[in-house]
Amino acid sequence: MRFIHKILLLNLALVVCFNGKAQTDKLSDIQDSSNQKLIEQFKQRIVETEKQRIADSVKRTELMNSLNSLQLSETYKKEKLQKQLSEISNRDAQRLALKKARIDSLRQIRKGSPVIGLLNDTLFYIYERFGTSSSMERAVHISNKIHALYDDDLLNIDSIKIIESENAQDIVYGETIIMSISETDALWNNMSMKDLANECNTKIKAAIIHARQEFSVEKKSLKAGLIILIIAISWLLIWLIGKAYVRLLRTIHHNKESWFRDFVHKDYTYLTAKQEMNIILFLIKVFRWILVALLLYIILTILFSILVFTRGWAVELFNLVWLPFRRILASIWHYMPNLFSILVIYFVVRYFNKFIKYIFSEIKDEKLKLSGFQPDWAMPTFRIVNFLSYAFMFVLIFPYLPGSDSNIFKGVSVFIGIIFSFGSSSAIANIISGLVITYMSPFKIGDRIKIGDITGDVVEKSLLITRLRTVKNEEVTMPNTAMLSGNIINYSSHARTKGLIIHTTVTIGYDTPWKDMHQALIDAALRTKDIKKNPEPFVLQTGLNDFYVSYQINAYTDAANTQERVYSQLHQNIQDVCNERGIEILSPHYRYQRDGNMTTIPAEYLKDDYKPPGFNVYIKKDGDK
User: Beta-carbon neighbour count of residue 382 at 10 Å?
Assistant: First the structure.
């Protein structure tokens, strides 16, 4: 049994040495060239300081010998030698202070090499080289010697002692030097060499005693029984989980008709009963495997912690899950002040916007009137202020966001900025045009406007586009840049108050008196629905042409959005009135040749005894006057 223990311990020592080497190599690597250069400079200073210390030690010994050899009468020489000794002591104190300061400057960038005990635990760390051995080599040698002491069946723990040498404290067992502690080692641990030697000696003895207790027969028997018990309990729990899973499936299938119904909203079925049941069964299956995996994870962690050789695995396995949660919780805890600042900024901006919205709502409803500020500007201005306030809030919050100072976060921010710079030039132009149109106030929602060849009612107005609905019920979407680049005719702006003047032109022959024609057109306008009687319609004569006179009827209406219907009724009424009063409407180039021809007036407007006139023929004879 003892032989098996030695083989296992030897294998453990090899693994520990390898792992210790890999770990210390990784921890001892300096992340950049500046730290490496600082360490090299420190090593060079240590060598120089050590040379100076040795020289001072030799000099001190010589001075002490010379001082002891002097006679009592040689007072002057004694004072001179004591002065030199005092200078050496002061220089030694300065050397120690400088050496400690340099060590303190390296604590953040240099990690120690661990000395691994018999149970794969770290006893203490070695930070500095000694002689030709690096800190890692020293830690491995000390670990190997501790394992060798454990393998010694005749080992007497009390025989491990501390021997003080000229420049170090040595921990020895018989003729074997387990480790040597230098002045630099003591400075790294902020202790004296003697105190550090006592502490390391105590830890080495305790590690050997504890390992022997762990590998005793009684301890092994207890661990074996505990392992069997844990395995039995774990098997029982997994069996119970399986039985519960099967029983739950049976219950679901037995009650599926009453538990599951089709999820329907407004004649659309989002999920059928079968789909709902399949989702529930899938979630239960996933939960079962998560529960089994969690149980196995806990069992393996406990089993690994029982055995000496696998306790390191238990720690690693436990930290594999726990460390991310602990880091997340720690990050959340440390982030709480920033989160509180973000919440304060958010609520201040939010209630500021509510107050601004209330003010602009009062302006919109014309309860609050500001000189030079139109009510139509209220909500567009509020949207601008609202956007700017939230943009300002984001600027204030940005430094408090987690990872805002990282290079990745900065790179993503630059990338998004480039995308917006290249991809939103037209959008920004439309937004600016939308702002200009807003404060120009050329139209409102519901107004009848004309832009270029398009006439329609405004149904939507935003910072980017304007939508029109034409008289043919077509929806036209126009960018605001196009709106701003052309002329906008608004038919509705004055129609509500002063009225919109609609007009049309008819051509009448010179044989019709203009007064009769004026009255006929005015009467036709007054017959038309949605034509206002006040102000009264009026007629303008716009041209005296070759064969006819151009009369233009002008009338006021407040139905700007239905002016097509008004025009149609007006034209109908003009035809009716002219026909009733025997007035012919002449089109361009209509020739007035009536002899022998039927009048152009419709038959229903003519008298019953109306007959077309005959041809008049005049013959002129010679001599007739």
Answer: 19
pLDDT tens digits, one per residue of 541-563: 999 887 788 999 999 998 888 88
Contacts with 558 (C-beta within 8 Å, 6 or more apart), sequence order: 495, 496, 499, 500, 530, 532
218 CB-contact burial (10 Å; exposed 0-12 / middle 13-18 / buried 19+): exposed
Tokens of 17: 């040495």
Is-cis flag, bond preceding 537, omega within 30? no
What's the pTM?
0.44
3-state secondary structure of 531: strand
* Burial (Cβ within 10 Å: 0-12, 13-18, ≥19) of residue 345: middle
Q: Distance (Å, rounded) from C-alpha 336 to C-alpha 316?
A: 29
Render pLDDT for 51-72 as a digit per residue (tens, 0 to 9).
Answer: 665 665 655 565 566 656 655 4
CB atoms within 10 A of CB 510: 14
Other CB atoms closer than 10 Å to residue 81's CB: what's the count? 19
CB 273 within 8 A of CB 261: yes
Rounded distance between C-alpha atoms, residue 585 and residue 587, angstroms: 7
DSSP tally for the chain: helices H, then strands E: 16, 15
